[in-house]
Structure formats: structure tokens, C-alpha cells
């Protein structure tokens, strides 16, 4: 799709301004190292490009890391190490929003509980033998994670091997139904194991195989899956999570699947978000989701370009609702100072104050209440 001159200006301007933000989140989502020096470099970029430059609260970044880690769990130890550096640097005692399993793994690794409310799940995770290694050595799942075909063959030749076995684990995304061995290959990009299972057992390529292949990122696996399965909106979600812009544009251009900007904001994929803006020039919809990035400059850019301060998404949520949900003080104040309607209701009848209260965001509740009386 050719870019209109005006639209391209939005994209080019914003990508230039927010290169540092984009680079850091790309580095986190596409992490492929356990090297201490490289992890230190990523931490320094987080400090410089997110916390110092955009005043993004450290606990927000830890929550982001906790959520993204299950999409790239091979490097769970690295994610925990980066989170530990943030905790130490900013003397964090409590992180209100953090995934249950990351909270547990952090406790196991460093004997620190970041969220006391999550402690009640620890016994269940202990019983499930969850660890930051993801899989124990000398298990079939470890063989697949390491793409160790020889080891996998040995397991398949053992007595009682079940080719249809499923793995249920909170260390994987959407794994409540269980992952097949082939789906596990797709998630980890384990191409040798994938080819072996297809050849030996004709293992079925499921829709989830294709979806997980966007996380694993192996082109041979993805191409095999595309021969059998048609991409859907969930593939777009995983492409957005992968922070690989080529995957996103492939689905858009070749399969006519729309970029979901709500998911772009959820997974901090600013580049895909701006590609959507570039393609549609839909400033109001982008403005609604912009508070989720925690970048006040992005918000101000949309306001200066004529965005409706009370624009709504399909759920009736305004930018102020989003800011209240995200406990974003600076964004909340900018929106109110520009005339945002404090009493706006979403389709369920909830105001920004209701949402801030539900999420126990006390500072936002204070700001909204103080402006209510003015």
C-alpha cells in the first residue's frame, strides 16, 4: 500500500521521536541472550529510554516484562535478571500488577515476593514444579525446546510413548487446552524436531501451530504451517507480540488481516501502531489507545493534530478511561487540562473514576475527585 504524504509524515515524525522507546521494547520482546553484559546493556537502555526520558514508572515496566516473558520463555532467567536490576535500582517493595507465575519465579530465584497477594498461588506452582528453566533436563519437552532431535528420537522410541500427549503449563501462553508436541516445536522454532515429528508421525499442523510459529519465528516451520492453515486474527496477535514488523505487514498485505491497535498498545508495539496510523490516518482511534504506551508526548501529538479529546472506542472507553485504568498520573492530568469529560461513561456505564477505583489506583482517584469539585 502506498503511503500518502501526510500519513507518512505522521509515521516518520513519530518513529524518529520514539526510536529509543521502540528499540527497548523490541529488545525485550525479541530477547535471545543470557549474556550478563548484554542484559546490563538492555537494563541501561530501559533506564535511559523509558524511565528517564518518558517517566514510565519502573513497576509498569516490570509488569510488562512479566507479561511478555511467557511468549519467549526460553529466556525466562534473563527476564528475571532484568526485573531484579529494576527492583534493586528503584528500591521497589511491591509491584501491584504482575503475572502470578512471574511473581512466583522471581520469588524462587531471589527470595523476594513482589506481590504479596500472589503468594496464595505459590503452592500450586510448587506442585507443578515450575522453574525458570521451564523444562527439566532429560525430558521430552526440554529436547524440543533445545531442538535436540537425537534426544527426541530416543524418547519416541521408549516404551509407552504417546505421540498425542499435551503439555499444560502456565509458563506458556493460552496453554489451558494443552500444547501438542508439534505446537511446542512451533513455539520454540525447533525446526529439526518439527520435521522429525511430521515425517515419523504425520503430526497434525493445527491452527495453533501456525499461530505459535509467529512467536518461534522459524521461516521453514511457518511456511509448512501456511500450506495447511489459513492465518487469522490470532496470528496477527502473535505477529504483534513478536515485534517483527515483517510478520505484521505480511499478514496485512498478503492476507488482508487488519492490525489490531488495541493489541499494539497492550504489547507496546509502537511501530505496528504507527503503521496502522500510516495506513488509515485514523487519529481518533489511535488517540484512544495512546495512553496505554505511557508516553505523554504521543498523547500531546494527537491532541495537537486535532484528536477529539473524548474520542471513544467500540467499548465506549475514552483516553481518560485508559489513563485511569493504567494508573497514569501525567496522562490523566494532560487529558483533564485539555477538557476531557471526567463523567464520560463506557458501554457498561463506568466512568474513569469507577475504573480507577476498581483497579485500586488511588492517585488517579484523588486527581479525578479533586477535578470533579472544580
TrEMBL record:
DUF3447 domain location: 201-276
Keyword DNA-binding: no
Record's keyword terms, sorted: ANK repeat
InterPro entries given in the database record: Ankyrin_rpt (IPR002110), Ankyrin_rpt-contain_sf (IPR036770), DUF3447 (IPR020683)
Matches recorded under Pfam families: Ank_2, DUF3447
Gene3D superfamilies: Ankyrin repeat-containing domain
Ranges for the ANK repeats: 315-347
Superkingdom assignment: Eukaryota
Protein name: DUF3447 domain-containing protein
Organism taxonomic ancestry: Eukaryota, Metamonada, Parabasalia, Trichomonadida, Trichomonadidae
Amino acid at each position: 500500500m502506498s503511503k500518502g504524504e501526510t500519513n507518512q509524515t505522521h509515521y516518520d515524525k513519530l518513529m524518529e521521536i520514539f526510536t529509543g522507546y521502540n528499540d527497548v521494547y523490541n529488545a525485550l520482546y525479541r530477547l535471545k541472550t543470557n549474556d550478563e553484559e548484554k542484559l546490563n546493556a538492555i537494563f541501561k537502555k530501559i533506564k535511559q529510554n523509558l524511565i528517564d526520558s518518558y517517566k514510565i514508572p519502573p513497576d509498569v515496566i516490570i509488569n510488562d516484562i512479566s507479561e511478555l516473558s511467557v511468549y519467549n520463555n526460553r529466556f525466562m532467567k534473563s527476564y528475571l535478571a532484568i526485573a531484579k536490576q529494576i527492583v534493586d535500582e528503584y528500591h521497589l517493595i511491591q509491584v501491584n500488577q504482575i503475572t502470578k507465575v512471574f511473581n512466583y519465579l522471581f520469588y524462587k530465584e531471589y527470595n523476594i515476593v513482589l506481590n504479596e497477594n500472589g503468594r496464595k498461588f505459590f503452592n500450586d506452582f510448587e506442585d507443578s514444579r515450575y522453574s525458570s528453566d521451564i523444562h527439566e533436563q532429560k525430558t521430552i519437552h526440554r529436547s524440543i525446546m533445545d531442538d535436540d532431535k537425537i534426544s527426541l528420537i530416543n524418547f519416541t522410541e521408549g516404551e509407552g510413548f504417546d505421540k498425542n500427549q499435551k503439555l499444560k503449563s502456565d509458563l506458556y501462553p493460552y496453554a489451558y487446552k494443552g500444547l501438542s508436541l508439534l505446537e511446542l516445536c512451533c513455539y520454540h522454532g525447533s525446526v529439526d524436531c518439527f520435521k522429525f515429528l511430521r515425517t515419523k508421525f504425520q503430526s497434525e499442523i493445527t491452527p495453533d501451530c501456525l499461530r505459535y510459529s509467529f512467536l518461534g519465528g522459524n521461516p521453514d516451520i511457518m511456511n509448512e504451517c501456511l500450506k495447511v492453515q489459513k492465518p487469522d486474527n490470532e496470528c496477527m496477535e502473535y505477529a504483534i507480540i513478536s515485534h517483527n514488523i515483517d510478520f505484521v505487514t505480511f499478514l496485512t498485505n498478503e492476507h488482508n488481516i487488519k492490525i489490531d491497535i488495541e493489541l499494539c498498545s497492550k504489547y507496546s508495539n509502537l511501530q505496528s501502531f504507527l503503521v496502522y496510523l500510516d495506513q488509515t490516518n485514523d487519529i481518533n482511534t489511535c488517540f484512544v489507545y495512546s495512553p496505554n504506551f505511557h508516553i505523554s508526548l504521543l498523547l500531546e501529538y494527537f491532541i495537537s493534530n486535532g484528536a477529539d479529546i473524548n474520542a471513544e472506542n467500540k467499548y465506549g472507553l475514552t483516553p481518560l478511561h485508559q489513563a485511569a485504568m493504567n494508573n497514569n498520573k501525567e496522562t490523566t492530568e494532560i487529558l483533564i487540562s485539555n477538557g476531557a469529560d471526567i463523567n464520560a461513561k463506557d458501554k457498561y456505564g463506568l466512568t474513569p473514576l469507577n475504573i480507577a477505583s476498581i483497579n485500586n489506583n488511588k492517585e488517579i482517584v484523588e486527581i479525578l475527585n479533586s477535578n470533579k469539585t472544580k
